[in-house]
Specification:
- The complex is a heterodimer.
- Helices cover 71% and strands 0% of the residues of chain A.
- Chain A is an all-alpha fold.
- Among the domains of chain A are: 88 residues; 104 residues, no CATH class.
- In chain A, helix 3 packs across helix 4.
- Chain B is 34% helix and 27% strand.
- The chains are: A mainly alpha, B alpha+beta.
- At the A-B interface, helix 10 of A face loops of B.
- Chain A: Pfam families: Sas10_Utp3.
Chain lengths: 317, 132
């Protein structure tokens, strides 16, 4: 019981102290207001056309928010004040309004973020780039002036003769540490990346996706399938050939397409089992042949080389 | 060999007066035989259009997948002079109207390259000279 009383007395004392301080603060502000300097400062602040107007709006809004918030807090802290009076309700409404405005500004600010960052960056750097102008220094000293003039003339002549290219002296830029992870490791294996990208859309992974996702299943109409496109292309080619009475040669692409269409691309799962292996293997070799299995062409080449070397040996002997 | 016949249908017939010929797309249906030679097709087309076989030039025949049908082109010239004027050399050579070049392609190219090294009337000397 005694503790509670001491706590009470202590809080009362603190309360009184804070009250006194606030009163003094208010007095000081009122005095300041009366002086003309304050007015000038306010007016100068309100007429700055150089900044980003969005930011000044944001500043005003935040200030208003704080003011309203402090007013609500004061209402709450005074005893025997009803919180449902009209004035407090209006204050709380205003708070909500200001809050919504601030939240609306946020995406706009995000879009402007790049510009703001650039502004900040350049302002920081300019301090470092402000240097003394060396040319102005020379003109002050009398004795050195003529010598320097001659020198500059001579230099200019030399330059005119040799026409040396002097690059423009630009503002130095900050060094950024961020760089691509890929390029740090070494060369980017393009083929591997391509295969990985294809594996993401393979049938197996799509099945998993369908099973565990909540999204509704999308069924596409099969009119624009590859088959119909190929058909249409083929018909166009034939039409051209018959119109102009000449046969068009078969490009490599067409030949490969024909081959692919002839092989059985069945939709068996057995054919597509190993499509997504790229993503899970660490040492993926790209589905290349095993060691020891040479294609017919390479076998032929090797035989040729062998025969040549044998011939050469024989002829030397 | 069976004596099965074949049918010829012509499509997209056009009379090309600028080149003084008639041109068409030829469909050959040969269900029992292998694909036909150009000679047979020429004969049939000449029969159909009441001309002589030497005025008919056939080319570009492709057999459809599975066999049985081939598609190609045929041109029928008014006279042999017009044919010699307008037809490309290789097609005339195929029919025997014009003799193909006797010299080999490689020899021709080598000769040309030899002539490149020499200027003026000396080219004639190089023309007949043989490679060392």
């Amino acid at each position: 019981m005694a503790d509670q009383e001491t706590i009470r007395s202590r809080t009362l004392k603190q309360y009184k102290e804070i009250n006194e301080q606030l009163r003094e603060f208010l007095k000081g502000i009122l005095q300041l207001e009366k002086t003309s300097l304050f007015h000038d400062q306010i007016q100068s602040n309100s007429t700055d056309s150089g900044g980003v107007s969005l930011l000044s709006i944001k500043n005003d809004l935040l200030l208003q928010y704080l003011i309203n918030l402090v007013a609500v807090m004061s209402r709450r802290s005074t005893p025997n004040q009803t919180l449902t009076s009209a004035s407090t309700r209006s204050m709380i409404l205003r708070l909500c309004e200001i809050r919504t405005f601030i939240e609306k500004i946020r995406p706009i600010e995000q879009k402007l973020q790049y510009q703001l960052d650039k502004l900040l960056k350049t302002n920081v750097d300019q301090q470092l780039t402000f240097r003394a102008n060396m040319e102005n220094f020379d003109q002050d000293v009398n004795g050195n002036q003529e010598a320097n003039e001659n020198k500059t003339e001579g230099e200019e002549e030399e330059e005119a003769k040799a026409k040396i290219y002097r690059p423009p002296k630009l503002v130095p830029v900050e060094y950024n540490e961020d760089f691509d992870d890929k390029k740090e490791k070494g060369t980017v294996n393009k083929r591997l990346e391509h295969l990985k990208r294809r594996a993401y859309h393979s049938d197996i992974l799509q099945e998993y996706k369908e099973r565990y996702s909540d999204a509704p299943e999308e069924v596409y109409n099969s009119e624009r399938s590859r088959f119909t496109q190929q058909n249409r292309a083929y018909k166009e080619k034939i039409a051209y050939e018959e119109e102009y009475l000449k046969r068009l040669p078969q490009t490599k692409r067409e030949r490969l397409q024909l081959q692919r269409s002839m092989t059985n691309n069945g939709n068996d799962i057995m054919d597509h089992l190993h499509d997504a292996d790229v993503l899970f293997d660490d040492n993926f070799n790209g589905g290349k042949k095993k060691k020891g299995k040479m294609s017919r062409q390479t076998k032929k080449k090797m035989e040729k080389k062998k025969n040549k070397s044998i011939k050469r040996l024989k002829s030397r002997k | 060999m069976s004596d099965s016949s074949f049918t010829i249908r012509t499509r997209k017939f056009k009379s090309n007066r600028l080149l003084s010929r008639r041109q068409m797309v030829v469909d050959v249906l040969h269900s029992d035989r292998a694909s036909l030679s150009k000679k047979d097709i020429r004969e049939k087309v000449a029969q159909l259009y009441r001309t002589t076989t030497d005025l008919v030039f056939c080319f570009g025949f492709n057999t459809n997948f599975g066999g049985g049908k081939s598609t190609g082109f045929a041109l029928i010239y008014d006279t042999l002079d017009f044919a010699k004027k307008f037809e490309p050399r290789y097609r005339l050579a195929r029919q025997g109207v014009v003799e193909p070049k006797k010299t080999a392609r490689k020899q021709r190219k080598e000769r040309k390259n030899r002539m490149k090294k020499v200027r003026g009337t000396k080219k004639a000397a190089v023309k007949d000279a043989k490679k060392k």
